[in-house]
Amino acid sequence: MCVFVLLVWIVCTVNALRFIAAYSSKVPYADDCVLFYVRSGQNSLLDYLWSLHNEHRLPLPKLVQYLLYQWSGDIRSGMYLQALIYAATALGCILAARRLRGGSRPWDIFFALLWLQTGNYENLLMGFQLCIAIPGACVCSVLILGAFSERRLWPSHALACGAATLALPLCGGGGLLQAPALALWLVWLGWTQRFHAGARERRGARICIGLGLATIALCGLYLIGFREPPNAQYAPLANSPLVLGLANLCAPFGPDYVSWRPVLMPAIASASALFGWLILRHGWRARDPRALGVCAVLVGGALLVGGIAFGRPVNGPLLVANRYIPLPAPFFVALTLGALCVLRPRWREAGLALACLLMLLATPGSIESGSANGTQRRIWDAELQERVEKRAGRAAILESYALDFMLGQPNLADWLLRHYSDKRLPPFDDPSHPEYPRAPALERFGLHPLALECSEPPLLRPLDGELLCLVKPPTTFDFAVTPAQHSFRIDVCVPALLLRWKKHPGLHGRVLLLLPGERPRVLGSLGVEAQQLESAPGWHNFEFKWPEAVDGILQLVLDAPPGQAAPNAADRVALRHAHVE
């Protein structure tokens, strides 16, 4: 049976790598694009690593992806590493089950199907999603090397478990919510064994206490300067938090569980409650570190799905975002392996066998869903490459990239395409491909200014009830001016959310007219002092005129706050309704 389980694991691993090779794109997609802010000099590396990504701090996965890209020059390197992390995690779980019972069983293939399913397409096709893969591997490492190992107090094992626990708050909300329970278990384990008869075990106990407390401190550090994400939108829940929580708990069984949710959700809920209660009862009575370690993972998993249900609810028919599929997987690893080590013989295999059966039922739909979405990604990539190769023009290339790769963010897509073109990165990496064309003339602006050139990619964020274009001074925008145009209008403000967060330094800027062969002409300044922002918040309107017919460039310059060495993310200003008329 060991050969059968190993063969299934190999097939699943090869299939995940094949999936990435077949459907991934060299062109950065969605969150993968944030890597190019630091590579273009928009942020320092340290600022990039510790800065909030929505509500997440992700220094560890960001650093791993950054180093991978520096080494390989291929954005897909993070995707392949993800698959290898999932493969190593699945193999570790299979070997742990074999060690706990003294042999393998056919249903141990559950772990390979759980971690290496291609229904997890959104993560497998985006290197940034290392932030999902790493926390799962860390939690399973604590289980395998700590809770289920008799050598848990050896310094090497204690150090590995402590390091894995310490890494969790460095991986965003998915790790942060699971870290406290595991950290408390480590502290409890070290404290109860601090007077162990063996000197080696006493050193391991001290390591557990130290790294457990360090993890708790790091969780507190995570929250210093934490704020509500600027793009937070809280829609009324169409379903109860209990339904959303159970739906997220079922997520590891693949994206195609909607049709049989009435069967799966009650089965998962009842089985989890039963086995969780049996493990907790045994651990509490016997003070068994294995059972209490399992309970720590179960508590972390419950907090995780609860956090997703309240903080990231999906009100559509799926109830769960595809990227959350692997997050609750350690919950089921703990439940099934915990049953093997603490329950009576007649109950031991039931949990793993039931989970394997449900996973087998979900696998065909998972494969179909992954293939369908991967095919769509490949179509998008082919369309973009074709437009670049055939010199389809700026508007056509921008439309393809903004809609298919950047979730409908034209300003950011335009900046990224120019960056890729300047650095000869995909889709402009082929020497025979033309560069990304610049806009030949100024178009009438709508919600946000679309400039010929801008030194920083503007961010579109819903703030104060409307969608705003945010920029961080110092930055400039260059707009084309034709002889028929004689005025420039723009609205500028600081969103109330940023004013509440810290004292804003105010707005300081200029508008210049650049004509061939002439010195820059200052049309005027736009400025609002900090005191005025507090006393008269809201939009401030500016208009600049020039009487003669000219053909040149109008440059909007937003200066850095006076006396400030480096700009802060909270010093951003909002722009709207820019018009050259």
How are the SSEs ordered, and which strands pair?
Blueprint: H1 2-23, H2 35-39, H3 45-50, E1 52-53, E2 56-57, H4 59-72, H5 77-101, H6 109-115, H7 121-124, H8 130-147, H9 155-167, H10 173-176, H11 179-192, H12 199-223, H13 241-249, H14 261-286, H15 289-311, H16 329-342, H17 345-389, H18 394-404, H19 410-423, E3 453-454, E4 459-463, E5 466-471, E6 475-481, E7 487-493, H20 496-501, E8 507-514, E9 521-528, H21 530-535, E10 540-545, E11 552-558, E12 573-580
Helix pairs in contact: 1-5, 1-6, 5-6, 5-8, 5-16, 6-17, 8-9, 8-15, 8-16, 9-11, 9-12, 11-12, 11-15, 13-15, 14-15, 14-16, 15-16, 16-17, 17-18, 18-19
User: Globular, elongated, flat, extended or rod-shaped: what is the shape?
Assistant: elongated
Count of distinct strands: 12
Beta-strand fraction estimate = 5-15%
Order of strands across the biggest sheet?
A: 3-6-11-8-9
- Low-pLDDT segments, ≥5 res: 230-235, 440-453
Count of the separate structural domains: 3
Helical content class: 40-55%
Rounded mean pLDDT score: 80
Q: DSSP helix count?
A: 21
Structural category is alpha+beta
Largest beta-sheet characterization: 5 strands, antiparallel
Task: Kindly provide the radius of gyration, computed on alpha-carbon positions and rounded to a whole number of angstroms.
Answer: 27 Å
Alpha carbon gap, first and last residue: 76 Å
Brief write-up:
The protein has 581 residues and is of the alpha+beta class. It is 54% helix and 12% strand.
Notes on the protein architecture:
With 581 residues, the protein is of the alpha+beta class. The protein folds into three domains: 2-223 and 242-373, no CATH class; 390-438; 453-580, Jelly Rolls. It is built from 21 helices and twelve strands. It has helices at residues 2-23, 35-39, 45-50, 59-72, 77-101, 109-115, 121-124, 130-147, 155-167, 173-176, 179-192, 199-223, 241-249, 261-286, 289-311, 329-342, 345-389, 394-404, 410-423, 496-501, 530-535; strands at 52-53, 56-57, 453-454, 459-463, 466-471, 475-481, 487-493, 507-514, 521-528, 540-545, 552-558, 573-580. The strands form three sheets. A five-stranded antiparallel β-sheet has the order 3-6-11-8-9. A five-stranded antiparallel β-sheet has the order 4-5-12-7-10, with no helix packed on it. The protein has a two-stranded antiparallel sheet with strand order 1-2. Helix 11 (179-192) packs antiparallel against helix 12 (199-223) and helix 14 packs across helix 16 (329-342). The longest helix has 45 residues, at 345-389. The protein is elongated and about 90 Å long. The N and C termini lie far apart (76 Å).
